[in-house]
Amino acid sequence: MDWSIFIVFMAASCTAAATGSLFPPDEWYRTLNKPTWTPPDWAFPLTWVTLYILSSIAATLIAAQSGVGLALAFWAFQIAANTLWSPVFFGLKRIKAAMLALVVLWVAVAGTLVTFWMVDAIAGALMIPYLIWVSIAGALNWWILQNNPQEVAANP
Q1: 20 to 30 Å CA-CA from 107: which of 7, 77, 97, 132?
Q2: Could you give the CA distance from residue 16 to residue 14 in angstroms, rounded to a whole number?
Q3: 37-42 long-range contacts, Cβ below 8 Å, gap at least 24?
């Protein structure tokens, strides 16, 4: 594995992670009606660090191959889409818009997984936990959207 390329992918991931740290859960989030299966607050940064490392390893494996423009474009798309959710949900408190951002992120991660898998099955497999986590986040966002109509009305 080329560590210099890995560091570049991790740097891009850290940029995306910065938006999460700039817009952490706050009192507004704590007062929302959430499902019993909501992960604890400490699980989010731990999970994201793990996912960023795995996706950066996967991207590094892909970058070493030829003819991988589409796969790396999907990786760039997913990391860009990743930067949107926290500012929209926690910063703007726009639950519906955050749901849309999660749908875009899910599509981007799924596209990354499929295009990576077509090049290198290990790289594709390394993206599976990411897609699972974004699916859980989407289900959580959807549940919050459905069960907090006062917040949706206050912040359309």
Answers
A1: 7
A2: 5
A3: 38/140, 39/136
Tokens of 71: 């796969």
- Total domains in the chain come to 1
63-67, 69-73, 86-90, 151-155, range with the lowest pLDDT: 151-155
pLDDT digits (tens, 9 = 90+) for 18-29: 998 899 888 999
Backbone angles phi, psi at 29, to 5 degrees: -60, -40
Q: 139: domain CATH number?
A: 1.20.1260.100
**Contacts of 71 by beta carbon, 8 Å cutoff, 6+ apart:** 62, 112, 115, 116, 118, 119
Please give the backbone phi and psi of residue 104, each rounded to the nearest 5 degrees, phi first. Answer: -60, -45
Written as six digits, the tokens of 90 are 């926690």
